[in-house]
Design brief:
Order of helices and strands: HHHHHEEEEHEEHEEHEEHEEEHEHEH
Strand order of the largest sheet: 10-9-8-11-14-15
Number of domains: 3
Largest sheet: 6 strands, mixed
């Protein structure tokens, strides 16, 4: 005869930590832009994420408090050295296992050491911690985008998402205007009351009611346009200089905007372009791995790539959202060489960049610029771009960038914020 013995469940210490709170604390680590590298000795040009770096990031999150009971945390942090404190290291390893099981991170196998010049045989490393890596998953990107969007909308106060409304009327799903007679090609969003009334008025009250084509009435609603957007991010080295990280807030805004478009504006499209010495299109799924580098600012090349992307989109509106903190200081010449000049506003670079802005205007592409600097010469340049394209200029800070950008995207109102 079988017996079932029940015992009291004693949870592990790691089970008491809310993963959402932990992920919020780790967001800066997942989205690092190279700014922290000068403090944590992480190479700016090496975006590789090792398990040891993740352990250190979780350790810093635990040290901030609130994740565990104060007395328990005080006892745990008596010796924060993971090489000696086995209890603390086991706790962090359990948290990493939970993050893996919940699908937030994906461990990668150890790397293989290539053959060197002294030996024809390659050596396969064992499960060394120095080579163990991880990748963040789409679930993490979605979580970070949702959290950023929620925080930004909370700071804006009450705001309804809606769509991009225009003054035109169409036959859609939501009624917003008087009914009219059905025409071929309209969405069959019937106004039942008006349709039946037309039939009764024509033939009188009888059963069954005989409907005719000319009796059909459809609701009208506001016509909702679709928009194609290219988000241009400046990843030159100045984005992390002067004691301030300006690139990580820009990455957060990109994730929030992506989440907003995917959930609230499914007819819209969003593409990401990084501009530095040159320009490149980056999938939004790779945004978290992007870092700044020792680059100049080739604004014209970024505008060129954005135009090529937008001209492929069959949308009612096309726009470029450019986030930058520096002046254009590089230019791709006809022979492929890159002309660079970081001293002042180079007339040659500025002229060619404004010429590309004029091409955007002729193509009907709107340019909205979010400037993270307030130098007088740069303000004049941005105002010139705004004047040429009839866009908007926002002179803001990394702390208010997301609020202004989302307000501009959702409301579409003309306003300047200084």
């Amino acid at each position: 005869m079988k017996f079932i013995k029940y015992t009291k469940y004693v949870p592990e210490l790691a089970d008491e930590i809310d993963l959402n709170d932990l992920m919020s604390r780790l967001s800066d680590f997942f989205l690092q832009s190279g700014y922290e590298s000068q403090f944590y000795r992480i190479s700016e040009m090496d975006p590789e994420r090792s398990m040891e770096q993740l352990r250190q990031a979780i350790l810093r999150a635990l040290e901030q408090g609130d994740l565990l009971d104060d007395d328990m945390m005080r006892e745990m942090m008596e010796d924060p050295d993971l090489s000696r404190n086995e209890k603390l290291r086991d706790l962090i390893d359990q948290l990493i296992e939970r993050l893996t099981n919940e699908g937030y991170i994906s461990p990668q196998p150890p790397q293989v050491t290539p053959p060197n010049e002294m030996s024809a045989m390659g050596n396969v490393d064992g499960p060394s911690e120095a080579h163990a890596r991880f990748e963040i998953t789409d679930k993490t990107l979605d979580f970070l985008g949702f959290k950023t969007l929620k925080d930004l909308l909370a700071s804006l106060g009450r705001s309804s998402f809606g769509r991009h409304d225009t003054r035109d009327l169409s036959t859609g799903v939501e009624s917003g205007g008087a009914s009219r007679a059905y025409e071929f090609g309209d969405t069959l969003n019937l106004d039942i009351s008006a349709t039946l009334f037309n039939a009764v008025r024509r033939d009188g009250a009888q059963v069954p009611i005989q409907l005719d084509y000319r009796d059909l009435m459809v609701h009208q609603c506001e016509y909702q346009s679709s928009c194609a957007t290219v988000l241009m991010l400046d990843c030159s080295h100045s984005m992390i200089l002067y004691g301030e990280d300006r690139f990580t807030p820009a990455k957060r805004v990109a994730l929030a905007l992506s989440h907003l478009i995917r959930t609230q504006y499914p007819g819209d499209s969003l593409h990401l372009v990084l501009f530095h010495d040159s320009a490149e299109e980056v999938p939004l799924g790779q945004l978290a791995r992007v870092q700044v580098g020792p680059f100049y600012t080739n604004t014209r090349e970024g505008l060129r790539m954005a135009q090529r992307i937008l001209m492929r989109q069959k949308k009612d509106m096309r726009q470029i959202i450019m986030i930058t903190d520096g002046k254009p200081s590089a230019l791709t010449l006809e022979d492929g060489r890159i002309y660079k000049n970081a001293f002042g506003l180079d007339p040659f670079v500025v002229t060619e960049t404004l010429r590309e802005v004029a091409k955007c205007k002729r193509a009907g592409i709107l340019i909205n610029t979010f400037m993270l600097a307030t130098d007088y010469s740069l303000v004049q340049f941005v105002q010139k771009v705004t004047q040429m394209c009839r866009g908007k200029a926002y002179f803001t800070t990394p702390y208010t960038l997301g609020e202004y950008l989302l307000m501009d995207y959702m409301q579409g109102k003309s306003k300047n914020i200084h």
